[in-house]
Amino acid sequence: MIPVTSIPVRKGVLLMFIGTGILVALLGFGPFDVPFDKALHFIVFFIMTTLFYWVLDVSRKRAIQFTFVSCILLGGVGSEFVQSFSPYRNFDAHDIPYNVAGSSLSLVLSAWYHRRMLDRKRYQRLHNTSTEPINTVITSQTEELPETGIPLEPAPNSNN
Predict the structure, then answer these.
(1) pLDDT tens digits along 23-53
(2) Which of 17, 81, 120, 132 sits at 20 to 30 Å (Cα–Cα) from 69?
């Protein structure tokens, strides 16, 4: 028996993902022939991967793993094989690199932004405790986010 676990999802993003997926499926498996097919593959897989990454409300590592398997392996490569069963579409091995490139760029950017977002939350949680006075004077003029080296602008000095 396979254990059933519930994975928390962001419902608004899930609805956007489903709606976009339906639109892409209707356009992708329909009798349409587009002259800029490769660019469209890149853009569609970029958008779908971005939405999929943010659907799952899981750790950054899990989101990367789920997105890689689902969007890059199954979506980017598998969708081309599925197209061979459509009477309107043909398998095109030249589409696969564009699918994978769009998904990969999206995954890299989403994971980067997710890390940056988590670092900012961690920084705020560590530096905004209730025991600190409200008007704290910053002694260092160049504070950085931990682990990223991203400089932050110093807080305004209220003693001037």
Answers:
(1) 988 877 767 777 788 898 899 999 999 999 9
(2) 120
Q: How far apart are the first and last CA of the chain?
A: 68
Contact assessment for residue 86 and residue 29, using Cβ atoms and an 8 Å cutoff: yes
Q: Rounded distance, CA 95 to CA 86, Å?
A: 16
- State the Cα–Cα distance between residues 45 and 72, nearest whole angstrom: 9
Where are the chain's structural domains?
Answer: 11-128+142-150
Nearest to 137, CA basis, from 154, 113, 119: 154
Which residues are registered as beta bridge partners of 143?
Answer: 152
CA pair distance 99, 91, nearest whole angstrom: 13
CB 99 within 8 A of CB 40: no
CB 71 within 8 A of CB 48: yes
Answer left, alpha or beta for residue 2, where phi above 0 means left and psi between -120 and 50 means alpha. Answer: beta
